[in-house]
Amino acid sequence: MKKLIIVGGGHAHVEVLRQFALEKPRAVEITLVSPDRHTPYSGMLPGLVAGHYTFEQSHIDLQPLAAWAGARLILQQAGALDAARRVVTLADGSELGYDILSIDVGSVPLAQDVPGVADHAIPVKPVRGFLAAWAQLQAQVRAGAVRGIAVVGGGAAGVEMLLAMQYRLAQLNPPLVPAFALVTDTPQVLPQHARGVRSVLERRLAQCGVTVHRALRVSRVMADALIGRTTDGQEQRVAADAVLWVTGAAPPAWLADSGLALNDKKFININNNLQSSSNDSVFAAGDCATIAGANYPKSGVYAVRQGPVLAHNLRCALAGGSALLDYTPQKKALALISTGERHAIASWGAIAFHGDWVWRWKDHIDRAFMAKYRGA
User: Are 323 and 204 members of one domain?
Assistant: First the structure.
């Protein structure tokens, strides 16, 4: 009996479980390790924050999905990996041996070592902690105790989260409406998107009264403000009673001592088969891994596409076969960016269009995606 350990309930792994439920591997003991029973779908997280979705609508319940796939679910955090011994150590110190291991544990926000971030900022990941902090922040806004909110991160995730928060807080009719600021260390918001997309979002931010601080690198976060430095070295203070941290991706710390080959940013180095470049018994997908030589963003849309390839390759590895499939990151990925209310912007290469109908389109896609994992 082969032992397969699946660490993390990310977008690629939920598809692996679905594929295994539809056609169960023979003579394989499957164990899913996740700190949370409910795994969030990133595409619906801004909608959850805005109040358009419930927790249940925007999260996949791993317990019935694992049972459907014939997998045992262990609700713990993976704390360490010894790839040479083929052993995963859990948070309680227990060890799990494996024949084949798959890792899809996502990422954490970058620059957690900036002074004050750990004490005063709200990281958007892990989502469980963020949602608890978001509930507390809403209560503080209802009480009129929040004058300003700053969101650090000028990518699509940061802009979406800011507009979603602002929309939801306005619905609360608070005694004091918080002012919002967006802080990005790049000269413009959404630097990876086309000019047309940036223009639409810049207009939207202006309409919503958001102050945008460009080319400002945060150097310190305090209880009532953040401090940053401009490209010419000038220090700037941004008043904020709450700071949301939505910066680029960093890998979970425990990967550093795993014995796996990592790239210069400490993500797992994988080949086009989604297999570790240094250990053929380990596969990885999603934000925690990067294909050597490939340049694609850390985004759920890529993890979703990796899922079917990963499922096939895990079957092959468990059966001792070599007919592994290649995953090739798409050159262009459709991004549907919500703007707080039921309105969204579509970004496809140099093409941009927006409207309420784009949100309805996005809503249909997201609901259809979630429905696939409720078929147990």
Answer: no
Closest CA to 74 of 85, 60, 63: 63
Q: For the chain, what percent of residues have pLDDT higher than 90?
A: 85
Predicted TM-score (pTM) of the model is 0.93
Is residue 71 scored above 90 in pLDDT?
yes
- 97 and 119 part of one domain: no
CATH of residue 54: 3.50.50.60
Where does a domain end: 182, 213, 246?
246
Task: Tell me if 174 is assigned to some domain.
Answer: yes
What does the mean pLDDT of the chain come to? 94
Query: Distance between CA atoms of 115 and 125, rounded to whole angstroms?
Result: 18
Boundaries of domain holding 31:
2-107+251-329
- What's the pLDDT tens digit per position in 199-255? 999 999 999 999 999 999 999 999 999 999 998 889 999 999 999 999 988 888 899
Planar angle of CA 207, 208, 210, nearest 5 degrees: 110
pLDDT score at 321: 81
35 with 88, same domain: the answer is yes
Q: For residues 318 and 120, give the distance between their C-alpha atoms in angstroms, rounded to a whole number.
A: 46
- Residue 66 resides in a domain: yes
